[in-house]
Write a structure and sequence with these properties.
The protein is an alpha+beta fold. 29% of the residues lie in helices and 36% in strands.
Length: 110
Amino acid sequence: HVKELQKLGGEITIEGNKALIHGVDALYGTNVIATDIRASSALVIAGLAAQGTTQITGIHHWRRGYNRLETKLNKLGASIEIIKETKFLKTTYSSDTVAESSEISLVISD
C-alpha cells in the first residue's frame, strides 16, 4: 500500500519489515489502485483527508468487505461516489467494438 499512499503525498519509507511514516502538511488527491481490503480502507481514509479528488480503482475489495460503507460515510459528510467504467477494445480486423472489461471505481471529492 506504501506506493499508493506515497502518490497521495505520504512520506513513508520502508526499513526491513518496518514502515516509517513521517507526518506531512497535506495529502493530495490522485488516481490510486487498491490491491486488497486493507489497501482500499487505507486509501479511502487518505482520500478523505486529501485535498482535491481521489479516484480509487480495484474497489471490488472494498465492496466485498464492507456493506455500503460509502453510503454511511456520505451520511457523515464525506463525498464518495461509486462509478462504473467499461473499457472498450477495437478489433484490428473489423470496425466492431467489443467490451473488454468493467471496472468499478470509488471517487472521493473534497
